[in-house]
Amino acid sequence: MDEPIRRRVFEPFFTAKEPGVGMGLGLLVAYMIITQNYKGLIEVASTPGKGTCFTIRLPLTSQLGKMDRGRD
Question: For the purposes of burial, counting CB atoms within 10 Å of the CB of 9, is it exposed (0-12), middle (13-18) or buried (19 or more)?
Answer without folding.
Answer: buried
